[in-house]
Amino acid sequence: MRDHKGLNEITRIIRRDIVSMIHGAKSGHPGGSLSAVEILTALYFDEMNVDPENPKMEDRDRFVLSKGHAAPVLYSVLANKGYFDKEELKGLRKIGRMLQGHPDMKGTPGVEMSTGSLGQGFSAACGMAMASKLDNAPWKVYTLLGDGEVQEGIVWEAAMSAAHYKLDNMVAFLDYNGLQIDGDVSKVMNIGPIVDKFKAFGWNVIEIDGHDFDQIFAALDMARETVEKPTMVVAKTIKGKGVSFMEDQAGWHGSAPSDSDLEIALKELGGVDNE
């Protein structure tokens, strides 16, 4: 029986970290970071075989944040998991500090791939899964894409390759919050019907509520039982989830909260500190 109460508390801490670090940096991407919190929490605090004390463990599972601009959610998850001291979160996007605006695999413990150019992380994740297959290794690969990101052609080349090579050791999550930097995804460049498209490319596709732990874990269980197909979990989410004035607002894709915004957000998220 999974400890949903414990996981929910972790998500609260992570959301608080996200708004605090972006406020401190005076730049960053809160909307798409907040929408992905439950997914990364489920992966790092339950599903994946990882060891913060040994981040380069050979048989570790790999996670690639393909939507690299959502780095704050990954950084908070890694810090709360124990990969590095939480004090580092205060250095987000600051010169001379470890946590850059996009994930850096050479400078940050736990980051498996430097990402930011949309679609390239997904492609790299496919390559990692293929490497695991070729080595007959036990480790799996997980990745997270944004819905605006799948407008990139490179995503579909990778999707075609993953199905062709039967990468059933790969699970991708699509953070389907419906908004991107320029507004509604369906108006900027409609990606629908996205479920049918990935199915047509040969993927096992599962639709879930991306904020519901029961549905996330059920999808992961189904993916584990799927053979000879990679799995795409289309997770319906809310951009800015957890902060009322950010929810479902495209303007919070890449804007930092002001002092007053931060005060309101932290109050809604249950306080400034929980340690």
From TrEMBL:
Q: Which UniProt keywords apply?
A: Metal-binding, Thiamine pyrophosphate, Transferase
What sequence ranges are listed for the domain Transketolase N-terminal? 11-270
Cofactor dependency: thiamine diphosphate
Q: Which InterPro entries match?
A: THDP-binding (IPR029061), Transketolase_CS (IPR049557), Transketolase_N (IPR005474)
- Any GO MF annotation of the entry: transferase activity
Coiled-coil boundaries = none
Q: What's the family?
A: Belongs to the transketolase family.
Supply the name of the protein. Transketolase
Q: Which organism is it from?
A: Asaccharospora irregularis DSM 2635
